[in-house]
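User: hey, got a sec? need C-5 sterol desaturase folded
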Amino acid sequence: MSELITYAIPFFVLLLALEALSYHLLGHDHHDDEPATPLKGYERRDTVTSLTMGLGNVAINVGWKLVVVALYVTLYELTPIRMPQDAWWAFVLLFVADDLAFYWYHRVGHRVRIGWASHVVHHSSEHYNLSTALRQPWVPMTALPFWLPLALLGFAPWMILMQQAISLIYQFGLHTERIGRLPRPVEWVFNTPSHHRVHHGANARYLDKNYGGILIVWDRLFGTFEPEGERVRYGLTTNIGTFNPVQVATHEWKAIWADMQRADRLADKLRYTVKPPGWRHDEQPGTTAAATAPEPPVTAAAGR
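Assistant: Yep! Here you go:
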């Protein structure tokens, strides 16, 4: 059922065109009570990079999905648990379980550096529009462990893949400045463009906030929620300054390797893969970027 993404592609393209047209016709935003402010909207090189990253992700997943499905099937056959495939309540449980898995995958992807090396691709644009949603990593393997428990809980592999696709389609629509705040009950329960703008912010108060996929309740429960307030500055705390897709995909992996080369102790070399972004082996305890508040979802270049 992951082909739902394929069916959604024409709608993605149509919505991209409509959003770009809205910038051409309107040129500024109207959400909240801020004065009308010129927006960057779409920038040709940035958009081409985002689309290229998305196409690369699709191509890589052609082979990687075979591995994922094989593992789901193996675990599903091993577990004695079976969730019904025709009961509404099983799909409700799957929706909740999938969204919780996404929250923790997303949070770990910001706080563990090898996860960030993959996920940083999605945050590398200084623009925020629907094309940004398509700026996806070329190393999607870091996500796998978070969904394996769903197969062990007895959800059929096709059900897991379908719910993952539904979540990704929903999240596509979050990447826009053309939608302001939605009614309060919606904003309290669901992830919205307002909440996700915060997540993409490089402002100090917005770092490592609002990890939710479809629901925002996990952030409220686990203390990572931040409402949208000051104007969001998009991108990384230290931007990479390139539109080269290969560099966008690999820059953090290269930075990890460079940091490992500078460390003498094997333990410190390994810590560069599992410590938060910004951690340094040669700084005193309590003075690393990772030890200060707020926690930084930075590139390896941050702090240099």
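Quick note: The CA atoms of residues 101 and 146 lie 6 Å apart. Let me know if you need anything else on C-5 sterol desaturase.
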